[in-house]
Structure prediction request, 363 residues.
Amino acid sequence: MRVKVGIPRSLFYYRFASFWEGFFTALGAEVIVSDPTNKRILDDGVKSCVDEACLPIKLFCGHVMNLKGRADYILVPRFTSISKNEYICPEFGGLPDMIRHTLKGLPKLIDTEINMRKSDRGGMKAAIEMGEMIGAGRRRTIKAFQLASQAFRKDQFHTEFRETVQKGENCPWLESRKSENRPQTECQKGENCPHLKSQKSKNCPRPKSRKGENCPLCVGVIGHPYNVYDRYISMDLLRKLVNRGVEARTIETVDEADINRHASGLRKPMFWNYGRMAYGAALHMAESGEVDGFICLTSFGCGIDSFVNDLIERHIRRRYGIPLITMTVDEHSGEAGFNTRLEAFIDMLQWRRQNEDHISASG
Prediction:
């Protein structure tokens, strides 16, 4: 009988899903992913987790509970570092202990430490330990690691989101365009649109918009992937932008070479992996003229975001004069207020393009 490995659909699942699923499948395990986030999962996490934890940590607890009784093992790795000389949120390091001492009646946890601060070999070391925990031999584990590395897709969730938009799934804006029986512009069709091409090729930036252009507004969405791509806690931000006729670019759409080039301009290296990715991606979008504005999506109480978002805002406004708004979510956030702020920001960007020709209101 195949071993069942449960993977919570939260936190770094939104970054390493393709790798983990490929790795455990290659080891002969049956991969079970927790259900998409819903109110019950969030409520379960909030009730079981400590009050001081941020929303993503509380949500992770809810997803672990969702896997209870469905798997032989649950993947709760002890993340320390996923890149050389950089760290991630310290709460990730204590997550296995928090889960083990808070939630009762769980199956065995795969709580291997993942530490790649000194070398990428830390990833292989962690994989071998995971394989041993579920009874796989060293040679088979190394082969599974290599196969999973080849199948890994950094932009998996942004690609899936874009594909659903192109199909018109859950997209009232596209449906309304079709029902109006009006000829679509080239940008609405996705043909010859400089912005859409820029998402596929770093050498084709979106030109600065001018009055009368049909190319839609574009907004850079800066945030942890587990906030941005979780439709429930992000309040479906990406689709709401599409519904308003706004294109969205995320960190995952920017080439890492461009990210590193901009991040290297800081006086000292970033301490956090996410900080480097977010800062470098935001400055690349701004410098290349691909976006009309930025939305920083953050969870209440996130210490890393409080620093990184402020750094991004200062540099973006000082160098490029591009509007930026911070949208904060937690378990108490109301969607009505979220929608009002989002709609006001989009209206401001549209007014700015039509009436100010991208000249700052402050002169």
About this structure: The domain at 4-151 is CATH 3.40.50 (Rossmann fold). The chain has 17 helices and ten strands. The chain has two domains: 4-151, 156-356. Residues 190 and 196 are 7 Å apart (CA to CA).
